[in-house]
Amino acid sequence: MDHALIEEATRRSGVVWVAPAAGGREQAVWHLWHQGAAYVVTGGAEQPWPDVSGRVLVTVRSRERQAGQVVRWAAAVEQVAAGGALWDEVVPLLAAQRLNAPDGQRQPERWARESRVLRLAPDGGPGSGLG
């Protein structure tokens, strides 16, 4: 697995495609790349998330129409605990990236009540690597 390619491609992409590692439909989600992992806000008024936990496959596509997939990587999914140190580090960064938030500066409070912040960390399992 080429961690440098995963980081560079994912950091540059505003959207990644996520599918259950066991198979299933891909879904586009916006994310933030931070310190070796992608972070996603789901649930409540935020983007829906496939009903999966544990592992997912993340596909990063090129912004150019015909270029297709840049990299596909397997990720371990972990929920970030509201109020914890990682939450306090990542949520302000996510909030700054969230476009058209219905509640502006109060969105982190709403996320703590009704959403989940998920950490998708490359785990090198089957399906990871260059595509």
Give an account of the 3D structure.
Helices cover 24% and strands 34% of the residues. The protein starts with a helix and ends in a 9-residue tail after the last strand. By secondary structure, it is an alpha+beta fold. The relative contact order is 0.25. It has a single domain (3-122), classed as Electron Transport, Fmn-binding Protein, Chain A (Pnp Oxidase, Chain A, Roll), CATH 2.30.110. It contains three helices and seven strands; from the N terminus they run αββββββααβ. The model is unreliable at 126-131 (pLDDT under 50).
Give the tags.
single chain; 131 residues; alpha+beta; Pnp Oxidase, Chain A; globular
Please state the second-level CATH architecture. Answer: Roll
* Number of extended strands: 7
The total of helices stands at 3
Q: Give the % helix.
A: 10-25%
CATH topology category name: Pnp Oxidase, Chain A
What characteristic shape results from the CA principal axes?
globular
Radius of gyration: 14 Å
**Backbone structural class:** alpha+beta
Break the fold down into its secondary structure elements and pairings:
Blueprint (H helix, E strand, L loop, with lengths): L2 H10 L2 E6 L6 E4 L1 E3 L2 E6 L11 E8 L7 E11 L5 H13 L9 H8 L1 E7 L9
Antiparallel strand pairs: 1-2, 1-5, 3-4, 4-7, 5-6, 6-7
